[in-house]
Amino acid sequence: MPYSLDVDQLRTFMAIAELGSFAKAGEAVHKTQSAVSMQMRKLEERIGQPLFVKDGRNSRLSEDGRRLVEYARRMVALNDETLSAFKEMPVTGTIRLGLPDDYAERLLPQVLAAFNRINPSTSIEVICESSIELGVRIKRGELDIAIVTDGDCANIPGTIIRREALRWVGPKDVILHKHDPLPIAVGPVTCSWRNVAVRALDRIQLKYQVVFSSASAAALSGAVQAGLAIAVLPASAVRTTHRVLGEQEGLPELPPCDITLIKSAGATEAAHDALCHHIVSSIGNVTYELAAE
Asked: Does residue 293 have a pLDDT over 50?
């Protein structure tokens, strides 16, 4: 009989895959680095394959490790959904939820489907706009809840629920990182990812040229796939058509990206609290205690 998988080990594995290191993952799941290493050794024994390979002084996901990512994400989400289904009474009402288009594509489908199964009498209206616009709508009371990039709504109190590594990504079969100046695709001037990328390039004095700009992460990803430019995307948005670039290609390390949950002052009903809890348990990898530090 095959062994069962440990959900806590899978949750730690997902943190490593998203944050890019054992040390950062340990901080996110409140475990020491040695405890994280032990969990991963046990997980590799269960899977029967190495999940990491050495890359200089660091480790990266092996081919089997990359294969496990989606299985782990689904298993952790199903575990949390199952517990929620038996702990919470179904709620009713209409919830106005806002989030940027790339979060909608990457995070929403499974999250909302699971919430609807638990709360079939709840209706959710989804509005996709930039984080800055969503912050304005939250202040006006036009939205109940929004999931935003933390740096874009710094003046609005919220809770950091997810921390992801930011990656330089280029087209799979076109070498752009050797171009001078470096062609980059970025968001508008108000975009925190753009500012992070520009500051990092300026820090190492690497010449660059903005050849494509859009508020849509899907459009930025399309510019990369078309071979036009290199972009900055969170780890969970990296596709098989992308090539992850880093210091070996002469590009600077980037800080992680924080995703924040914000609520309007009027979002006080049970349905609002239920959806917030469901979002945190489904996509969050940072505890409330860690976010408050």
From this structure: no
